[in-house]
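Changelog note: in this version the structure field was regenerated for every chain. One regenerated record is shown below for reference.
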Amino acid sequence: MPAPAALPAHARVTSLDGLRGVAACAVVAFHFFYAFAPTPFLYAERPPFGLFRTPLAFFWNGDFAVAVFFVLSGFVLAASAPRSLAEAPIMIGLRYLRLGVPALISSILAWAWLTGFPHAASGAQAISGSRWFRWTYQPPIPPLSQAMWEGGIGVFLQGTTRFNNPLWTMQAEFFGSLLIYGSYALLRGRVRPWAMAAGLVGFGVAELYFLMAFCGGALIYERRGQLGERRLAGALLAVAGLVLGATFPAPAAGPDLAAQIFARLGADGVREIGAMFLVAAVLMTAPLRALFESAPLQKIGELSFPIYLVHVPLIVAPASAIFVALSPMSPLGLAALFAGTCAAALALAVVFLIAVERPVLAGLKALRRRVRARLAAP
């Protein structure tokens, strides 16, 4: 299997699609269990040692999954960057549509679920005590017009919405797009990787960690030719990435330096470095690429953005209503509810993929082709 470094500059790296799909599933698990079994997710309640303090937490660490999303976005944006300064504003506008149209429709969907189950979230919060529900509207549910405003425009301005709370990342994605597209429109050749490295350090110092992740993804894209096929190094890098990023931070077990360092694993900044390590490791390691290129993970990867957009409305509305009706729930009952929520999220994501995601991508591809043809014309 050839390493991605050997691929043409704009070839799609399908293994990263599979990684994105796994990250989307981790976000679903994170939100579900944070809603209905929140205690292990509370920093103050988390013991210094335990399952949440291991790389296995990758499968339910939503914060790390989002960091992976941002690194992957930096990589993809660098690959699709504007070819000229004149093209940059148009590409940024298309990027807004790519994010905004699905976000708008998901916000309308969330409004419909919340309107249909207006008291489900507050009832579930009363039982589980999860603070996560504070990011969801409680009755009276605002009107559809507000859902449309927040999903299509407001979330990009304010960075938050209580109709569908994962949409907070849309602002980060758009700012990251401005950063990468703007930088690549102004800079050329060998300057780009140096600029991305400087951004990686500078944004980290400024504690703008999401922009740090975007720069890291773009830097990986620029240096993909130097990664090569290094299985052992890639495997070690993947483990290091999971240890640094997927581990949940916790209060230090003691005052000594080792305990203080261990407590910082998975914290802001460290988490983004771990995500960069993991993405680079996939590019370097054939067995990892083969895993993420497998047919099931490729399908999940195609559904990753729809899954991300539709799963929270399901959790805060019908899943919460079932949780309230059947409480107190046994661990087996909660596991069954989780399985049902995942199945419903996959089914709804397929509908979203066919009805929204594919038409939006096809329309934007046609627009991009037309714009580039017009700019290239004498």
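Spot check on this record: The chain has one domain: 4-376. The CA atoms of residues 100 and 153 lie 7 Å apart.
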